[in-house]
TrEMBL record:
Short name of one Pfam family: p450
Family: Belongs to the cytochrome P450 family.
The UniProt record lists the keyword Transmembrane: no
Keywords of this entry: Heme, Iron, Metal-binding, Monooxygenase, Oxidoreductase
Protein name according to UniProt: Cytochrome P450
UniProt lineage: Bacteria, Bacillati, Actinomycetota, Actinomycetes, Streptosporangiales
CC cofactor: heme
Originating species: Nocardiopsis mangrovi
Region annotation Disordered: where it falls in the sequence: 1-21
Oxidoreductase as UniProt keyword: yes
Record CDD domains: Cyp158A-like
Length: 411
């Protein structure tokens, strides 16, 4: 039987969201209660606006695949995610330059997705491993303890994504700053976020002009000249938004995941030792780290323009729905022993990259980077260990994607 409208079954005050956790690598205790008792919960966002939070695996998967749940968060009545006037990255004009759904969205995905083939990812891997080796050389030369995120996790993905966009090495620090600013919900002011968006748009406009005059062997050059099935080329606004999407999705998420993955594996030495004994488990270990990550960040917001039923609850027209994939990935109804890290778990249909038509385009690249980094770390630093107790690790607050302030290690 379908319940009454969302919120009436949960009479208490809206939960503050994101929900805090007592330990950086542990899920909030509230997740289990929500999945069991209140799978569609009222939450209050950093902006002060309210939304509905979905935490069960099947519900999250269905919402992400349902075209009735749109990505346009600038609609009248849609909840603002951050405490800035614009509501942050998801509400920006730049984000709305990309087609939201339908055939236009599929055309965009096909044009961009041609770059992320298994063959191209395999071709990128030697360069990724070589860069990881260089960064580890520098970290070792400077001695320990060292912050693995600052020395490896942060610089590697921005190097990869800038290489894909044909951005010169001298400009990578700017890209790192823009990525951090655009993905933070609380650290920066409205003026700072607006300035970062304007600076990024101006840079990409000039970069696209330069690539038209002198194309290179990079994704942006390819997209500039590519045409869809109707012979049409991607407009500049969509090219800029694509560059922004690749930057914020391809840099910050993977950057933080490298540190979190290492911390998860090193927090229980038996996990690291098992990988040392059997490096063939690297692929499944990466997938399990993605599933097991309890610090997945904000989740994916969606907006509905009609009443929709989710898991037995009717969610009203005009509601912003937050899909928490990290909570869904800890759902015991979907994963046996969901609260434990099983390095050889297979199959592992986690939702870390989303699901359906809007699943992460760059997931093959993220997997390639994470597998390459883990392979190199196991080979180069077999004695790697956390330099602090896992309970002393701290979450990076305010970021749309989850992260740790630092991951101190020694070897």
């Amino acid at each position: 039987m379908v319940d009454q409208m969302v919120g009436q079954g949960d009479s208490g005050p809206a939960l503050s969201y994101p929900i805090p956790s007592e330990a950086a690598l542990e899920p909030p205790a509230e997740w289990e209660r929500l999945r069991r008792q209140c799978p569609v919960a009222r939450v209050r966002l950093p902006s002060g606006d309210e939304a509905s939070l979905v935490t069960r695996y099947e519900d999250v998967k269905k919402v992400l695949a349902d075209p009735r749940f749109g990505r346009r968060l600038d609609a009248d009545g849609a909840a603002r995610l951050s405490d800035t006037e614009s509501g942050g990255l998801f509400n920006s004009d730049m984000a709305s330059s990309l087609p939201e759904s339908g055939e236009a969205h599929l055309k965009w995905r096909r044009m961009v997705g041609k770059w992320f083939t298994a063959k191209r990812m395999s071709a990128l891997r030697p360069g990724i491993e070589a860069m990881a080796e260089r960064l580890i050389d520098d970290m070792v030369a400077n001695g320990h303890p060292a912050d693995l995120t600052a020395n490896l996790g942060f610089p590697l993905p921005v190097w990869v994504i800038c290489d894909m966009l044909g951005v010169p090495e001298s400009d990578r620090d700017e890209f790192s700053f823009w990525s951090d600013t655009l993905l933070n919900l609380t650290r920066y002011s409205e003026a700072e976020i607006g300035a970062a968006q304007a600076e990024f748009a101006a840079y990409m406009t000039a970069h696209i002009t330069a690539k038209r005059a002198r194309p290179g062997d990079d994704l942006l050059s390819e997209l500039i000249v590519a045409t869809d099935s109707a012979g049409e080329r991607m407009p500049d606004a969509a090219l800029i938004a694509t560059g922004m999407g690749l930057l914020v999705a391809g840099h910050e998420t993977t950057s933080n995941m490298i540190g979190k993955m290492a911390a998860m594996l090193l927090s229980d030495r038996r996990r690291w030792e098992r990988l040392l004994a059997d490096p063939s488990l690297v692929r499944t270990a990466v997938e399990e780290a993605l599933r097991f990550d309890a610090n997945g960040g904000f989740g994916l917001p969606r907006y509905i323009t009609k009443d929709v039923e989710i898991g037995g609850t009717v969610v009203a027209n005009g509601t912003t729905v937050i899909c928490n994939m990290a909570a869904a990935n800890r759902d015991e109804s979907a994963f046996d022993g969901a609260g434990g890290m099983v390095l050889d778990r297979s199959p592992n249909p986690h939702l870390a990259f989303g699901s359906g038509a809007h699943s992460c385009l760059g997931q093959a690249l993220a997997r390639t980077e994470l597998q390459a980094v883990l392979d190199v770390l196991l080979r180069r630093l077999p004695t790697l260990e956390l330099a602090v107790d896992a309970t002393d690790l701290r979450r990076r607050e305010g970021l749309v994607v989850g992260g740790l302030d630092e991951v101190p290690v020694r070897w």
